[in-house]
Design goal:
Elements lengths: L8 E7 L3 H16 L2 E3 L8 E6 L4 H21 L4 E6 H6 L1 H6 L5 E3 L7 H9 L4 E3 L20 E5 L1 E2 L10 H5 L3 E2 L2 H14 L4 E5 L7 E2 L2 E2 H11 L4 E5 L8 H9 L6 E3 L7 H6 L6 H14 L4 E8 L6 H14 L3 E6 L17 H25 L4 E9 L6 E6 L4 E5 L9 E9 L3 E6 L8
Parallel strand pairs: 1-2, 1-3, 3-4, 4-5, 5-6, 7-10, 10-13, 14-15, 15-16, 19-21
Antiparallel strand pairs: 8-9, 11-12, 17-18, 17-20, 18-19, 20-21
Helix pairs in contact: 7-8, 8-9, 12-13
The structure holds S-adenosyl-L-homocysteine (SAH), iron/sulfur cluster and FE3-S4 cluster.
Length: 449
Protein backbone atom coordinates (compact mmCIF):
# COMPACT_ATOMS: atom_id res chain seq x y z
CA UNK A 1 0.00 0.00 0.00
CA UNK A 2 1.05 3.55 -0.66
CA UNK A 3 1.01 6.18 2.05
CA UNK A 4 -0.61 9.55 1.31
CA UNK A 5 2.73 11.41 1.19
CA UNK A 6 4.50 9.45 -1.51
CA UNK A 7 1.46 8.70 -3.72
CA UNK A 8 1.72 9.90 -7.32
CA UNK A 9 -1.95 10.76 -7.26
CA UNK A 10 -5.37 9.72 -6.01
CA UNK A 11 -7.53 7.67 -8.31
CA UNK A 12 -11.27 7.13 -8.15
CA UNK A 13 -13.00 4.35 -10.14
CA UNK A 14 -16.60 4.16 -11.25
CA UNK A 15 -17.74 0.92 -12.90
CA UNK A 16 -20.67 0.10 -15.22
CA UNK A 17 -21.57 -3.14 -17.00
CA UNK A 18 -20.93 -6.78 -16.26
CA UNK A 19 -18.95 -8.60 -13.57
CA UNK A 20 -15.99 -8.75 -15.95
CA UNK A 21 -15.82 -4.96 -15.85
CA UNK A 22 -15.87 -4.94 -12.05
CA UNK A 23 -13.06 -7.47 -12.12
CA UNK A 24 -11.11 -5.31 -14.61
CA UNK A 25 -11.48 -2.26 -12.37
CA UNK A 26 -9.73 -4.23 -9.62
CA UNK A 27 -7.06 -5.22 -12.12
CA UNK A 28 -6.34 -1.60 -13.10
CA UNK A 29 -6.50 -0.55 -9.44
CA UNK A 30 -3.82 -3.21 -8.82
CA UNK A 31 -1.66 -1.85 -11.66
CA UNK A 32 -1.95 1.72 -10.36
CA UNK A 33 -1.42 0.80 -6.70
CA UNK A 34 1.82 -0.90 -7.75
CA UNK A 35 2.75 2.28 -9.60
CA UNK A 36 2.29 4.31 -6.38
CA UNK A 37 -1.19 5.69 -6.86
CA UNK A 38 -3.67 5.70 -4.03
CA UNK A 39 -7.22 4.44 -4.66
CA UNK A 40 -9.84 6.69 -3.02
CA UNK A 41 -13.55 6.16 -2.36
CA UNK A 42 -14.66 9.80 -2.61
CA UNK A 43 -14.67 11.36 -6.08
CA UNK A 44 -13.98 14.83 -4.61
CA UNK A 45 -10.62 13.63 -3.26
CA UNK A 46 -9.47 12.35 -6.65
CA UNK A 47 -7.07 13.81 -9.16
CA UNK A 48 -7.69 10.90 -11.53
CA UNK A 49 -11.15 9.60 -12.38
CA UNK A 50 -11.55 6.37 -14.34
CA UNK A 51 -14.95 5.36 -15.69
CA UNK A 52 -15.15 1.69 -16.68
CA UNK A 53 -17.82 1.55 -19.35
CA UNK A 54 -20.28 -0.83 -21.04
CA UNK A 55 -21.57 -0.86 -24.64
CA UNK A 56 -23.97 -3.79 -24.49
CA UNK A 57 -27.15 -1.71 -25.05
CA UNK A 58 -27.62 1.89 -26.09
CA UNK A 59 -28.95 2.88 -22.66
CA UNK A 60 -25.73 1.61 -21.03
CA UNK A 61 -23.77 4.06 -23.19
CA UNK A 62 -26.22 6.92 -22.63
CA UNK A 63 -25.79 6.53 -18.88
CA UNK A 64 -22.03 7.02 -19.25
CA UNK A 65 -22.44 10.04 -21.53
CA UNK A 66 -24.67 11.75 -19.01
CA UNK A 67 -22.20 10.90 -16.26
CA UNK A 68 -19.40 12.51 -18.29
CA UNK A 69 -21.57 15.61 -18.77
CA UNK A 70 -21.95 15.73 -15.03
CA UNK A 71 -18.16 15.60 -14.52
CA UNK A 72 -17.64 18.71 -16.67
CA UNK A 73 -18.17 20.98 -13.66
CA UNK A 74 -15.53 19.16 -11.63
CA UNK A 75 -13.11 19.26 -14.57
CA UNK A 76 -13.69 22.99 -15.03
CA UNK A 77 -12.93 23.62 -11.37
CA UNK A 78 -9.83 21.44 -11.21
CA UNK A 79 -8.57 22.01 -14.77
CA UNK A 80 -5.31 20.22 -15.61
CA UNK A 81 -5.13 18.93 -12.05
CA UNK A 82 -7.82 16.39 -12.91
CA UNK A 83 -7.28 13.52 -15.37
CA UNK A 84 -10.44 11.83 -16.68
CA UNK A 85 -10.05 8.36 -18.17
CA UNK A 86 -12.54 6.15 -19.96
CA UNK A 87 -11.78 2.43 -19.96
CA UNK A 88 -13.73 -0.70 -20.93
CA UNK A 89 -16.03 -1.50 -23.81
CA UNK A 90 -17.05 2.03 -24.83
CA UNK A 91 -13.40 3.04 -24.97
CA UNK A 92 -12.78 0.16 -27.35
CA UNK A 93 -15.87 0.78 -29.48
CA UNK A 94 -15.57 4.54 -29.86
CA UNK A 95 -11.79 4.99 -29.64
CA UNK A 96 -10.68 8.56 -30.42
CA UNK A 97 -14.25 9.61 -31.33
CA UNK A 98 -14.85 9.56 -27.60
CA UNK A 99 -12.32 12.33 -27.07
CA UNK A 100 -13.69 14.33 -29.98
CA UNK A 101 -17.19 14.05 -28.60
CA UNK A 102 -16.30 14.54 -24.94
CA UNK A 103 -13.49 17.06 -24.68
CA UNK A 104 -12.97 16.49 -20.97
CA UNK A 105 -11.71 12.94 -21.55
CA UNK A 106 -7.90 12.70 -21.36
CA UNK A 107 -7.32 8.95 -21.46
CA UNK A 108 -9.07 6.26 -23.55
CA UNK A 109 -7.98 2.71 -22.84
CA UNK A 110 -9.44 -0.55 -24.17
CA UNK A 111 -9.76 -3.87 -22.28
CA UNK A 112 -6.50 -5.35 -23.61
CA UNK A 113 -4.33 -2.29 -22.99
CA UNK A 114 -4.56 -1.91 -19.22
CA UNK A 115 -0.84 -2.50 -18.67
CA UNK A 116 -0.33 0.78 -20.51
CA UNK A 117 -2.49 2.86 -18.13
CA UNK A 118 0.44 4.39 -16.14
CA UNK A 119 2.06 5.65 -19.38
CA UNK A 120 -1.24 7.01 -20.69
CA UNK A 121 -1.73 8.94 -17.45
CA UNK A 122 1.76 10.43 -17.80
CA UNK A 123 0.88 11.59 -21.31
CA UNK A 124 -2.29 13.20 -20.03
CA UNK A 125 -0.36 14.98 -17.31
CA UNK A 126 1.92 16.41 -19.99
CA UNK A 127 -1.15 17.83 -21.71
CA UNK A 128 -1.54 15.20 -24.44
CA UNK A 129 -4.40 12.77 -24.93
CA UNK A 130 -3.48 9.19 -24.04
CA UNK A 131 -5.17 6.58 -26.26
CA UNK A 132 -4.56 2.84 -26.50
CA UNK A 133 -7.29 0.60 -27.86
CA UNK A 134 -5.16 -2.17 -29.33
CA UNK A 135 -6.74 -5.59 -28.92
CA UNK A 136 -4.51 -8.58 -28.26
CA UNK A 137 -4.65 -12.27 -29.11
CA UNK A 138 -2.73 -13.30 -25.98
CA UNK A 139 -3.21 -10.83 -23.15
CA UNK A 140 -4.75 -12.51 -20.06
CA UNK A 141 -3.00 -10.40 -17.37
CA UNK A 142 -2.07 -13.75 -15.80
CA UNK A 143 0.85 -12.33 -13.81
CA UNK A 144 -1.03 -9.36 -12.31
CA UNK A 145 -2.82 -9.31 -8.98
CA UNK A 146 -6.04 -7.28 -8.80
CA UNK A 147 -6.58 -4.97 -5.84
CA UNK A 148 -9.43 -6.43 -3.80
CA UNK A 149 -10.06 -4.24 -0.80
CA UNK A 150 -13.36 -5.29 0.66
CA UNK A 151 -16.02 -7.96 0.94
CA UNK A 152 -15.89 -11.71 1.23
CA UNK A 153 -16.56 -12.47 -2.46
CA UNK A 154 -14.06 -12.13 -5.29
CA UNK A 155 -14.23 -12.19 -9.07
CA UNK A 156 -11.52 -14.06 -10.88
CA UNK A 157 -11.33 -13.64 -14.65
CA UNK A 158 -10.30 -16.94 -16.28
CA UNK A 159 -10.75 -16.02 -19.91
CA UNK A 160 -11.12 -12.92 -22.01
CA UNK A 161 -12.85 -12.04 -25.28
CA UNK A 162 -15.48 -13.95 -27.20
CA UNK A 163 -15.51 -15.77 -30.55
CA UNK A 164 -19.20 -16.56 -30.73
CA UNK A 165 -20.41 -13.54 -32.69
CA UNK A 166 -24.03 -13.74 -31.65
CA UNK A 167 -25.46 -11.39 -34.27
CA UNK A 168 -26.83 -8.86 -31.74
CA UNK A 169 -23.72 -8.55 -29.60
CA UNK A 170 -20.84 -6.04 -29.44
CA UNK A 171 -18.66 -8.04 -27.07
CA UNK A 172 -16.56 -9.81 -29.76
CA UNK A 173 -15.76 -6.32 -31.12
CA UNK A 174 -15.07 -4.63 -27.79
CA UNK A 175 -13.16 -7.47 -26.16
CA UNK A 176 -11.58 -9.23 -29.09
CA UNK A 177 -10.72 -12.89 -29.56
CA UNK A 178 -11.25 -15.54 -26.96
CA UNK A 179 -8.24 -16.62 -24.88
CA UNK A 180 -7.88 -18.61 -21.67
CA UNK A 181 -5.68 -17.86 -18.74
CA UNK A 182 -3.45 -20.81 -17.74
CA UNK A 183 -4.81 -23.17 -15.06
CA UNK A 184 -1.63 -22.64 -13.02
CA UNK A 185 -2.09 -18.90 -12.73
CA UNK A 186 -5.79 -19.19 -11.77
CA UNK A 187 -4.85 -21.76 -9.12
CA UNK A 188 -2.05 -19.61 -7.69
CA UNK A 189 -4.32 -16.59 -7.40
CA UNK A 190 -6.85 -18.80 -5.58
CA UNK A 191 -4.09 -20.03 -3.27
CA UNK A 192 -3.09 -16.45 -2.53
CA UNK A 193 -6.68 -15.57 -1.55
CA UNK A 194 -6.87 -18.71 0.56
CA UNK A 195 -3.68 -17.76 2.43
CA UNK A 196 -4.88 -14.21 3.02
CA UNK A 197 -8.08 -15.67 4.47
CA UNK A 198 -10.66 -12.91 3.91
CA UNK A 199 -12.25 -14.14 0.66
CA UNK A 200 -14.78 -16.96 1.17
CA UNK A 201 -16.32 -17.10 -2.31
CA UNK A 202 -14.77 -16.87 -5.77
CA UNK A 203 -16.66 -16.44 -9.04
CA UNK A 204 -14.74 -17.58 -12.11
CA UNK A 205 -15.53 -15.24 -14.99
CA UNK A 206 -15.59 -15.43 -18.76
CA UNK A 207 -18.06 -14.49 -21.49
CA UNK A 208 -18.41 -18.20 -22.21
CA UNK A 209 -16.57 -20.26 -19.62
CA UNK A 210 -17.48 -23.56 -21.25
CA UNK A 211 -15.10 -22.96 -24.12
CA UNK A 212 -12.20 -22.49 -21.68
CA UNK A 213 -9.16 -24.27 -23.07
CA UNK A 214 -5.64 -24.12 -21.67
CA UNK A 215 -3.70 -26.38 -24.03
CA UNK A 216 -6.33 -29.10 -23.82
CA UNK A 217 -7.30 -28.55 -20.21
CA UNK A 218 -11.02 -27.85 -20.24
CA UNK A 219 -13.30 -25.87 -17.96
CA UNK A 220 -14.21 -28.98 -15.94
CA UNK A 221 -10.49 -29.50 -15.22
CA UNK A 222 -10.11 -25.88 -14.14
CA UNK A 223 -13.15 -26.13 -11.85
CA UNK A 224 -11.78 -29.29 -10.19
CA UNK A 225 -8.38 -27.67 -9.70
CA UNK A 226 -9.75 -24.43 -8.24
CA UNK A 227 -12.27 -26.17 -5.97
CA UNK A 228 -9.51 -28.37 -4.54
CA UNK A 229 -7.38 -25.41 -3.41
CA UNK A 230 -9.45 -24.63 -0.32
CA UNK A 231 -12.64 -26.54 0.43
CA UNK A 232 -13.84 -23.74 2.69
CA UNK A 233 -14.00 -21.29 -0.22
CA UNK A 234 -17.12 -21.64 -2.30
CA UNK A 235 -16.86 -21.44 -6.06
CA UNK A 236 -19.25 -20.02 -8.66
CA UNK A 237 -18.82 -19.41 -12.37
CA UNK A 238 -20.40 -17.34 -15.15
CA UNK A 239 -21.41 -17.21 -17.94
CA UNK A 240 -22.21 -20.59 -19.47
CA UNK A 241 -23.11 -20.81 -23.14
CA UNK A 242 -25.37 -23.74 -24.00
CA UNK A 243 -23.33 -24.75 -27.04
CA UNK A 244 -20.35 -26.42 -25.38
CA UNK A 245 -21.67 -27.29 -21.96
CA UNK A 246 -20.19 -30.72 -21.21
CA UNK A 247 -21.40 -33.37 -18.77
CA UNK A 248 -17.91 -33.16 -17.23
CA UNK A 249 -18.77 -29.67 -15.98
CA UNK A 250 -22.03 -30.98 -14.50
CA UNK A 251 -20.12 -33.79 -12.80
CA UNK A 252 -17.59 -31.31 -11.38
CA UNK A 253 -20.45 -29.24 -9.95
CA UNK A 254 -22.15 -32.33 -8.55
CA UNK A 255 -19.04 -33.92 -7.03
CA UNK A 256 -17.40 -30.88 -5.38
CA UNK A 257 -19.23 -29.81 -2.28
CA UNK A 258 -17.82 -26.27 -2.43
CA UNK A 259 -19.00 -25.58 -5.99
CA UNK A 260 -22.39 -23.87 -5.79
CA UNK A 261 -25.25 -25.78 -7.34
CA UNK A 262 -26.14 -22.79 -9.46
CA UNK A 263 -25.80 -22.26 -13.20
CA UNK A 264 -26.36 -19.07 -15.19
CA UNK A 265 -27.14 -20.08 -18.74
CA UNK A 266 -28.69 -17.52 -21.10
CA UNK A 267 -31.17 -18.79 -23.71
CA UNK A 268 -31.94 -15.39 -25.36
CA UNK A 269 -35.01 -16.56 -27.32
CA UNK A 270 -37.46 -19.46 -27.42
CA UNK A 271 -38.06 -19.81 -31.17
CA UNK A 272 -35.64 -21.75 -33.36
CA UNK A 273 -36.03 -19.25 -36.19
CA UNK A 274 -34.87 -16.42 -33.91
CA UNK A 275 -32.08 -18.49 -32.32
CA UNK A 276 -30.76 -19.16 -35.79
CA UNK A 277 -30.90 -15.50 -36.81
CA UNK A 278 -29.04 -14.74 -33.57
CA UNK A 279 -26.34 -17.30 -34.48
CA UNK A 280 -26.73 -18.95 -31.09
CA UNK A 281 -25.88 -22.39 -32.63
CA UNK A 282 -28.37 -24.43 -30.56
CA UNK A 283 -32.04 -25.17 -30.91
CA UNK A 284 -34.83 -24.78 -28.40
CA UNK A 285 -34.94 -28.58 -28.07
CA UNK A 286 -31.21 -28.82 -27.39
CA UNK A 287 -31.48 -26.12 -24.74
CA UNK A 288 -34.38 -27.88 -23.03
CA UNK A 289 -32.48 -31.20 -23.16
CA UNK A 290 -29.48 -29.58 -21.50
CA UNK A 291 -31.64 -28.13 -18.71
CA UNK A 292 -33.26 -31.54 -18.18
CA UNK A 293 -29.81 -33.14 -17.93
CA UNK A 294 -28.70 -30.50 -15.41
CA UNK A 295 -31.75 -31.04 -13.24
CA UNK A 296 -31.32 -34.78 -13.42
CA UNK A 297 -27.58 -34.85 -12.64
CA UNK A 298 -27.68 -32.13 -9.96
CA UNK A 299 -30.90 -32.49 -7.99
CA UNK A 300 -32.11 -29.12 -6.73
CA UNK A 301 -29.82 -27.15 -9.06
CA UNK A 302 -30.73 -23.49 -9.37
CA UNK A 303 -30.79 -22.11 -12.91
CA UNK A 304 -30.88 -18.50 -14.08
CA UNK A 305 -30.84 -16.99 -17.55
CA UNK A 306 -30.70 -13.98 -19.88
CA UNK A 307 -33.39 -13.40 -22.49
CA UNK A 308 -34.31 -10.58 -24.84
CA UNK A 309 -37.45 -9.47 -26.65
CA UNK A 310 -37.81 -7.62 -29.94
CA UNK A 311 -34.95 -9.10 -31.94
CA UNK A 312 -35.45 -8.07 -35.61
CA UNK A 313 -38.31 -10.03 -37.15
CA UNK A 314 -39.56 -11.49 -33.83
CA UNK A 315 -43.26 -12.28 -34.35
CA UNK A 316 -45.99 -12.80 -31.76
CA UNK A 317 -45.62 -16.56 -32.29
CA UNK A 318 -41.85 -16.40 -31.76
CA UNK A 319 -42.39 -14.42 -28.58
CA UNK A 320 -45.00 -16.94 -27.42
CA UNK A 321 -42.28 -19.61 -27.65
CA UNK A 322 -40.06 -17.54 -25.36
CA UNK A 323 -42.83 -17.35 -22.76
CA UNK A 324 -43.44 -21.05 -23.20
CA UNK A 325 -39.78 -21.93 -22.64
CA UNK A 326 -39.77 -19.86 -19.46
CA UNK A 327 -42.87 -21.68 -18.23
CA UNK A 328 -41.23 -25.02 -18.92
CA UNK A 329 -37.83 -24.34 -17.34
CA UNK A 330 -39.05 -22.23 -14.41
CA UNK A 331 -35.78 -20.30 -13.87
CA UNK A 332 -35.08 -18.98 -10.39
CA UNK A 333 -33.97 -15.65 -11.83
CA UNK A 334 -33.92 -14.09 -15.29
CA UNK A 335 -32.25 -10.96 -16.63
CA UNK A 336 -34.64 -9.65 -19.27
CA UNK A 337 -33.83 -7.06 -21.94
CA UNK A 338 -35.27 -5.21 -24.90
CA UNK A 339 -33.18 -5.73 -28.01
CA UNK A 340 -30.97 -2.72 -28.68
CA UNK A 341 -29.36 -2.45 -32.15
CA UNK A 342 -25.57 -2.14 -32.03
CA UNK A 343 -23.71 -0.62 -34.94
CA UNK A 344 -21.25 -2.96 -36.62
CA UNK A 345 -23.04 -6.17 -35.62
CA UNK A 346 -24.78 -8.42 -38.16
CA UNK A 347 -28.19 -7.78 -36.63
CA UNK A 348 -27.69 -4.03 -37.11
CA UNK A 349 -28.22 -4.61 -40.83
CA UNK A 350 -31.52 -6.39 -40.15
CA UNK A 351 -33.02 -3.12 -38.91
CA UNK A 352 -34.93 -2.54 -35.70
CA UNK A 353 -38.24 -3.92 -36.93
CA UNK A 354 -40.19 -4.45 -33.71
CA UNK A 355 -41.79 -1.16 -32.58
CA UNK A 356 -40.79 0.21 -29.18
CA UNK A 357 -44.32 -0.17 -27.72
CA UNK A 358 -44.39 -3.83 -28.75
CA UNK A 359 -40.98 -4.43 -27.19
CA UNK A 360 -42.06 -2.70 -23.99
CA UNK A 361 -45.26 -4.72 -23.82
CA UNK A 362 -43.45 -8.03 -24.48
CA UNK A 363 -40.84 -7.22 -21.85
CA UNK A 364 -43.45 -6.33 -19.23
CA UNK A 365 -45.34 -9.59 -19.77
CA UNK A 366 -42.09 -11.52 -19.53
CA UNK A 367 -41.19 -9.77 -16.28
CA UNK A 368 -44.66 -10.47 -14.85
CA UNK A 369 -44.37 -14.16 -15.72
CA UNK A 370 -40.87 -14.45 -14.27
CA UNK A 371 -41.82 -12.60 -11.06
CA UNK A 372 -44.59 -15.15 -10.52
CA UNK A 373 -42.25 -18.08 -11.18
CA UNK A 374 -39.49 -16.69 -8.91
CA UNK A 375 -42.07 -16.18 -6.16
CA UNK A 376 -43.44 -19.70 -6.52
CA UNK A 377 -39.96 -21.26 -6.64
CA UNK A 378 -39.02 -19.37 -3.49
CA UNK A 379 -42.25 -20.37 -1.73
CA UNK A 380 -41.38 -23.99 -2.51
CA UNK A 381 -38.09 -23.51 -0.67
CA UNK A 382 -39.85 -22.85 2.65
CA UNK A 383 -38.88 -25.60 5.08
CA UNK A 384 -35.73 -26.59 3.18
CA UNK A 385 -32.19 -25.99 4.44
CA UNK A 386 -29.51 -23.97 2.65
CA UNK A 387 -26.01 -22.71 3.27
CA UNK A 388 -25.67 -18.92 3.38
CA UNK A 389 -22.41 -17.00 3.21
CA UNK A 390 -22.80 -14.01 5.52
CA UNK A 391 -22.00 -10.74 3.71
CA UNK A 392 -23.03 -8.22 6.35
CA UNK A 393 -25.98 -6.63 8.06
CA UNK A 394 -29.39 -6.80 6.38
CA UNK A 395 -30.82 -3.46 5.18
CA UNK A 396 -33.64 -3.79 7.72
CA UNK A 397 -31.16 -3.73 10.65
CA UNK A 398 -32.54 -5.16 13.94
CA UNK A 399 -29.59 -7.55 14.17
CA UNK A 400 -30.61 -9.25 10.93
CA UNK A 401 -27.82 -10.50 8.68
CA UNK A 402 -27.77 -10.95 4.92
CA UNK A 403 -26.05 -13.23 2.47
CA UNK A 404 -26.65 -15.41 -0.56
CA UNK A 405 -27.69 -19.01 -0.59
CA UNK A 406 -25.81 -21.61 -2.57
CA UNK A 407 -28.55 -21.12 -5.17
CA UNK A 408 -27.57 -17.42 -5.38
CA UNK A 409 -30.73 -16.06 -3.75
CA UNK A 410 -30.63 -13.15 -1.33
CA UNK A 411 -31.42 -14.32 2.20
CA UNK A 412 -31.95 -12.52 5.53
CA UNK A 413 -32.06 -14.04 9.02
CA UNK A 414 -31.66 -13.02 12.67
CA UNK A 415 -27.96 -12.96 13.53
CA UNK A 416 -26.52 -14.67 16.56
CA UNK A 417 -23.66 -13.59 18.82
CA UNK A 418 -20.27 -14.12 17.23
CA UNK A 419 -21.54 -14.37 13.64
CA UNK A 420 -19.58 -12.25 11.16
CA UNK A 421 -19.17 -11.63 7.43
CA UNK A 422 -17.43 -14.58 5.81
CA UNK A 423 -19.11 -17.23 7.99
CA UNK A 424 -20.98 -19.98 6.18
CA UNK A 425 -24.10 -20.88 8.14
CA UNK A 426 -26.79 -23.48 7.65
CA UNK A 427 -30.29 -22.03 7.73
CA UNK A 428 -33.87 -23.22 7.38
CA UNK A 429 -36.02 -21.14 5.03
CA UNK A 430 -39.06 -19.77 6.84
CA UNK A 431 -40.50 -17.25 4.40
CA UNK A 432 -40.11 -15.94 0.88
CA UNK A 433 -40.89 -13.12 -1.53
CA UNK A 434 -39.95 -13.05 -5.22
CA UNK A 435 -36.42 -11.83 -4.53
CA UNK A 436 -35.63 -12.58 -0.90
CA UNK A 437 -35.71 -15.57 1.40
CA UNK A 438 -36.23 -15.29 5.14
CA UNK A 439 -34.58 -17.87 7.31
CA UNK A 440 -33.53 -19.03 10.78
CA UNK A 441 -30.10 -20.35 11.69
CA UNK A 442 -29.97 -24.05 12.42
CA UNK A 443 -28.42 -24.91 15.76
CA UNK A 444 -26.41 -27.98 14.86
CA UNK A 445 -22.92 -27.76 13.39
CA UNK A 446 -22.76 -27.38 9.59
CA UNK A 447 -22.58 -30.75 7.90
CA UNK A 448 -19.39 -31.30 5.96
CA UNK A 449 -18.47 -34.29 3.89
N1 LIG B 1 -21.44 -13.67 -22.63
C1 LIG B 1 -22.68 -13.76 -22.04
C2 LIG B 1 -23.48 -12.49 -21.88
C3 LIG B 1 -22.99 -11.22 -22.42
S1 LIG B 1 -23.96 -9.82 -22.39
C4 LIG B 1 -23.48 -14.73 -22.84
O1 LIG B 1 -23.20 -15.00 -23.97
O2 LIG B 1 -24.43 -15.25 -22.33
C5 LIG B 1 -25.26 -10.09 -21.24
C6 LIG B 1 -26.60 -10.16 -21.85
O3 LIG B 1 -26.96 -8.95 -22.48
C7 LIG B 1 -26.76 -11.18 -22.95
O4 LIG B 1 -26.93 -12.47 -22.46
C8 LIG B 1 -27.97 -10.69 -23.69
O5 LIG B 1 -29.17 -11.21 -23.15
C9 LIG B 1 -27.94 -9.20 -23.45
N2 LIG B 1 -27.59 -8.49 -24.69
C10 LIG B 1 -26.46 -8.60 -25.41
N3 LIG B 1 -26.52 -7.79 -26.51
C11 LIG B 1 -27.71 -7.17 -26.47
C12 LIG B 1 -28.38 -6.24 -27.32
N4 LIG B 1 -27.82 -5.80 -28.45
N5 LIG B 1 -29.61 -5.80 -26.96
C13 LIG B 1 -30.20 -6.25 -25.83
N6 LIG B 1 -29.63 -7.13 -25.00
C14 LIG B 1 -28.39 -7.60 -25.31
FE1 LIG C 1 -22.03 -11.78 -26.82
FE2 LIG C 1 -22.77 -14.15 -27.67
FE3 LIG C 1 -20.26 -13.73 -26.92
FE4 LIG C 1 -22.19 -13.76 -25.11
S1 LIG C 1 -21.56 -15.50 -26.39
S2 LIG C 1 -20.55 -12.29 -25.26
S3 LIG C 1 -23.90 -12.85 -26.18
S4 LIG C 1 -21.28 -12.84 -28.68
FE1 LIG D 1 -20.82 -4.47 -21.23
FE2 LIG D 1 -18.48 -5.04 -22.20
FE3 LIG D 1 -19.46 -6.41 -20.19
S1 LIG D 1 -20.23 -4.45 -23.37
S2 LIG D 1 -21.63 -6.37 -20.59
S3 LIG D 1 -18.94 -4.30 -20.15
S4 LIG D 1 -18.24 -7.21 -21.86
Amino acid sequence: MVSMEDAKGKVYFETYGCQMNFSDTELVAGILAKDHYEVVQDINDADLIFINTCSIRDNAEQRVFSRLQHLRGLKRRKGKELVVGVMGCMAERLKKDLIEKEKLVDVVVGPDAYRDVPRLIQMAKLGEKGINTLLSLEETYEDLTPLRTEGVSAWLTVMRGCDNFCTFCVVPFTRGRERSRPVGSVVSETELMSREGRIREITLLGQNVNSYNDNGRQFADLLQAVAAVDRSIRIRFATSHPKDFSDDVLRAVRDNENICKYIHIPFQAGANRVLEAMNRTYTREEYLDLIARMKQMIPGVSVSTDVMVGFPGETDEDYEQTLDLMRQVRFDTAFMFKYSPREGTKAWKMGDTVPEEVKADRLQKLIDLQERISYENNQNRIGTTEFVLIEGEAPRGDGFLRGKTDSNIFCVFPGEPGMKPGDLVRVRITGATGHTLKAEVLKEEPVTT
